[in-house]
Amino acid sequence: MQNMRIASVNLGREESIAHGKRSFETGIRKRPVSGPVRIGSQIVAGDTICDTEHHGGADQAVYAYSSEDYAWWSEQLGTELAPGTFGDNLTIDGLPSDLNVGDRLLIGDVLLEATAPRIPCSTLAARMQDDAFGLVFRKAERPGIYFRVLNEGEVEAGDGVTFVDNPAPVVSILDLYRFAYDLRPNRADLERYLEAPLADRMRAKVEAKLAAAS
To answer: pLDDT, tens digit, for every residue of 71-104?
Structure first.
């Protein structure tokens, strides 16, 4: 895997987004900040998460996105997307679009563990001011990755990132991303997914599909 480094650390504050007839408060608009930022076990210090039902918490404390995927989107959309556009806390140079659940990133003292893909929602569509963007994002299969924090600490732009792979049974982030849209998932796949250290929200979805298949 190529060398990785943090391109930017991005924080959001609660603000209103209007799209169509909707207007709501969200912290999705994240912007790069300078200097060290503490990565806590539940949230990135100074960041805001309004929709705590679907975002944040111990298993999705950090959302990371690849600089290369942002470059791809910028080319596709014909406009440059700044780090944090999709609500990522960390924009990372060299981060693959796909990791395995349980793969880890070491950044100084901070240790992150991959847990789930980001599933596009109406908030992302409103952020992009495009009702169809959720479907476009889905088809691109560049979801970004949620991480749990195994060891807290501070990070800042320019820090190197060391990849530590997971030797446990292989379940990829894209496996879970595709599962989210699969109306008739394979039972063996569902059982395999549950062997991985999934985010609790994703685990609940897999367990529900498995119970329905019984």
So the answer is: 999 999 999 999 999 999 999 999 999 999 999 9
Of 26, 85, 31, nearest in space to 51 by CA: 26
**What is the CATH code for 4-167?**
2.40.33.20
Q: Which pairing describes strands 22-26 and 110-117: parallel, antiparallel, or unpaired? A: unpaired
Q: How far apart are CA 170 and CA 102, in angstroms?
A: 9
Give the C-alpha separation, 165 to 102, whole Å.
7
Cα separation, 109 vs 115, whole angstroms? 19
Instruction: Record the pTM.
Output: 0.94
